[in-house]
Amino acid sequence: MTVGIQPRTITVPKRLLLGPGPSELDPEVARALSLPSLGHLDPAMVEIMQDIKRLLQYTFVTRNEATLAVSGTGTSAMETALANVIEPGDKVLVGIMGYFGDRLAQITAKLGGQVIRVEAEWGKAIDPDMIIARIKEVTPQVVCLVHAETSTGVVQPEIEHISSAAHEVGAVLVVDTVTSLGGQPVKVDDWGIDVCYSAGQKCIGAPSGLSPITFGELALDKINKRTTPVSSFYLDLNLLRNYWDSQQYHHTISAPLVYALHTALDKIQQEGLENRWKRHEINQRAFLAGVEALSLDLLAEKDHRLNTLITIKTTEDIAERTIRQELLNDYSIEVGGGIGPFQGKLLRIGLMGYGSRREFIIQLLAALESILRKHGRPVPEGCSVAAAMKVYETAL
Amino acid sequence: MTVGIQPRTITVPKRLLLGPGPSELDPEVARALSLPSLGHLDPAMVEIMQDIKRLLQYTFVTRNEATLAVSGTGTSAMETALANVIEPGDKVLVGIMGYFGDRLAQITAKLGGQVIRVEAEWGKAIDPDMIIARIKEVTPQVVCLVHAETSTGVVQPEIEHISSAAHEVGAVLVVDTVTSLGGQPVKVDDWGIDVCYSAGQKCIGAPSGLSPITFGELALDKINKRTTPVSSFYLDLNLLRNYWDSQQYHHTISAPLVYALHTALDKIQQEGLENRWKRHEINQRAFLAGVEALSLDLLAEKDHRLNTLITIKTTEDIAERTIRQELLNDYSIEVGGGIGPFQGKLLRIGLMGYGSRREFIIQLLAALESILRKHGRPVPEGCSVAAAMKVYETAL
Q1: What is the pLDDT of residues B299-312, one digit of tens each?
Q2: Are B110 and A230 an interchain contact pair (Cβ–Cβ within 8 Å)?
Q3: Which of A242, B281, B384, B392 is the most buried (most CB within 10 A)?
Q4: CA pair distance A386, B334, nearest whole angstrom
């Protein structure tokens, strides 16, 4: 039997990654990937994992002991959150304002939870009062929300008020911060979030494959009182905690990803969370000034725009696909396209982690400006970069 | 609120990894990890993933179209195998001769399968005739076996005969090759295996975090006829296939792990599977000659010893823990210890992938010899290295 392919050494083009993820890696994070491998029981590895736990507590702004990184992508963290707290038959109120809210509902249904949807039109945030009213009406066991909806660039406001309402009826609040953690304010303890998770490859600035998650007391209490086993072995929180806290064998964590995550989190602490949030905010403002100079329209409304992911509506005269292909082929810049109802109608631009930097924003604006002009849009030369630079001159 | 730790740059000791995994990385595989990141939709990434699929078909010796790598460790691949083919209520015959067979039973139970155990004492293989007799008696829907039991160093013989018996009653055969794939013969199509999975960090020679898996027609047919949804979204085969084959978004695969897996698999094809199996066999023989010269006892019986993982019984005069600590601290060599009934009583030595090399074996034997002598064992100087070298002189 002969199968296989011609041997080849892979060559990888250097892209500027300004899509919805993975984001650009700090050169030091990339370098950490090729440190020598260590076994998961090596004392040096145990110490690095303990560091990661504490650095994650810093990043989530929590004192939760049950804080660790799941050995999988953000979706595995989402499933870990839901699979541990939801029991079959539980009423689960799911806030849906885009693709990832819908995914929360899909996973909940697979786990046997009764999904109660609270929806907003894609591109808008869900009215917190509507969520709170539904919580009172339905008295669910679990409430799930997406804080930063990657499909639309919208931030869900008033998590702390929703949390109070959830706790009044004894519900556990699960919040997805895949596109916000490490990029804009997320305060697990202050906001009263019971389960919060994220991913490595967005604002944290690591590669994907190890995903932060944290569980508070209310969630642990619900897990301890389960009458049915957690359906997954790989994502079972109690097994994961024994692995992280007591080195009880569960799986073989990926050493290069551990080094990279440690380095990325250490950089967050060195920069300081407040400074990092501020940096993402200023870069977003500068980019938006450039976008406005180019007369492009944004999807998300002013008060609900993420600092980390910006969504620009495209129009029929220049197809989304054309812009993305020209950015990739002529400038080696990756940005994302629309999904769901916005398929072919949206640019999704991630300014996340190391990717939220002045020089990258200038590169992207200059490229966008040239592409628009090439396709007949009457944009004044240099307008977008000038508009962005003006924000930097005032802000810094 | 002030949480966090002192900032620090991690320093990682260089170990020689000769435990049950992770194994040593080829320097080219380590280098591939720090290639520039790519998004999962980048045409260059799509091409690399298609390569990986074909290289995995070569490594599994299969023409199965449903061949890919799961974004998690070997345990996630085990769960992917079981979660997709097992429906609640299915009779699942599980062969158990060590820790990982037991894990198959645990996951099966979590998924609602009825576990029927066929066991051998840890350290022995299961009699294939006993498995075949039980298959005829029980007529299960699924049969699960561990080909290479990492906890004991034992290989399960006659998979192809067990496969025929399983197929006679219409059962799907799932085989764990975590510690054999890429190191000693595994032939998915010739042996009639319906679902086969492995891990990156053993004989494949990649880091952990992306785990090979393949499904044949009988397994796909059972999955298509399911009357209940697969409980996991993250590990749902149909979603994974759409992601690998049609770039339908499911998760964000870890670019560094993709590069490393591609490089490791490419090296397998360049070496040639037969040559690679032969290399592992010769290195095992050389190492065993050295172990015999040291008068150490092996756990696994002659006919059922893995070429990839060797288990040495320790005795009370020199504790397992002492040997492992001295190897680590004085020689920077990692080997594994016993688990389950062999806790504190076994050395587990992995000679896997790039780690199956003459120079590493010589280093380990020389170190073991010195440690034994230091603790009062009357071993002639240089005996173990000489015995190993003699095997190489004859074999090469």
Answers
A1: 999 999 999 999 99
A2: yes
A3: B384
A4: 57
CB within 8 Å: B19 and A39:
yes
Counting Cβ atoms within 10 Å, is residue B7 exposed (0-12), middle (13-18) or buried (19+)? exposed
Q: Where are the alpha helices (DSSP H) in B111-198?
A: 128-138, 159-168, 188-191
Residue B177 in contact with residue B77, Cβ under 8 Å?
no
B230/A110 touch (CB, cutoff 8 Å), yes or no: yes
Determine the 3-state secondary structure of A287 from DSSP. helix
A100 and A146 inside one domain? yes
Q: How far is CA A179 from CA A38, A123, A292, in A?
A: 30, 15, 23
Q: Which of B252, B265, B331 to mutate to test the interface with A (most CBs of A within 10 A)?
A: B252
Residue that terminates a domain, selected from B227, B251, B270? B270
Q: Which residue carries 């939870």 as its tokens?
A: A113
- A329-381 pLDDT, tens digit per residue, is 999 999 999 999 999 999 999 999 999 999 999 999 999 999 999 999 999 99
- Looking up residue A88, the CATH number of its domain turns out to be 3.40.640.10
**ipTM reported for the complex, 2 dp:** 0.97
Of the candidates B172, B168, B97, which has an alpha carbon nearest to the alpha carbon of residue B136? B168
d(CA A74, CA A52): 17
C-alpha to C-alpha distance for B17 and B19, rounded to whole angstroms: 6
Cis peptide before B22 (omega within 30 of 0): yes
Same domain, residue pair A221 and A334: no
